[in-house]
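Hey, can you fold this one?
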Amino acid sequence: MKTSDVVVDASRLPDWAFGWRTPLWWGMLLLIVILVTLIFMMLGSYFFLAASFEIWPPPLRETTGGIRSPVPDPSMSLATTGLLLLSGASAFFTDRAARRMNQMPLRLELTLTLFLSIGAMVTRVAEFQRLRVAYNHNAYGSAVWGILGLHSTLLYAGCVMLLVLGVWTWFNRVDHKHAFDVTLACLFWYGVVAVWLPCWFVVYWSPGLLT
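Sure. Predicted structure:
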């Protein structure tokens, strides 16, 4: 049987795309999965340590002989969570503006997302300052600092992405390539916001349930 070659005219197909149709989108998604898995390993270590203690978190003994609870104050974490949720909503509109190639809405929404993320960075520093246990006090302190530190690394990395793209969009006309870069940064930011919620619950609210 003779087979004939099939010729397809691809001249009218676009040379760019957004979302799951591009290899870079899958690469970013896999990176997020790896980082989220690492954070959940940290959360699993937290509960493994909790199961090894009769009292969790273990109380701290003062130099004066007194005992105090190491459970952190959640007030500043509420501000961080609120800012992250707002930045996630802003990132959604940034993503949509990038896909539609809307220049000014993209610049404005990306700038708003950046400022909200910077605000979350500031409140995160305040969270560390309000912790009642040092990283080297005991296993609980190491677990708490490890969880917050790892998420902070993702938070700061996402802020750098948003900052670089934000500056670029204000001084250049956005093309499809850079609009796609914005959508990847937004995808990464979705992961940063989403993975914070279980971290927030474990660090600030689970000690009351495990006591």
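The helical segments are 23-51, 75-100, 103-130, 139-171, 176-210. Let me know if you want another pass with a different chain boundary.
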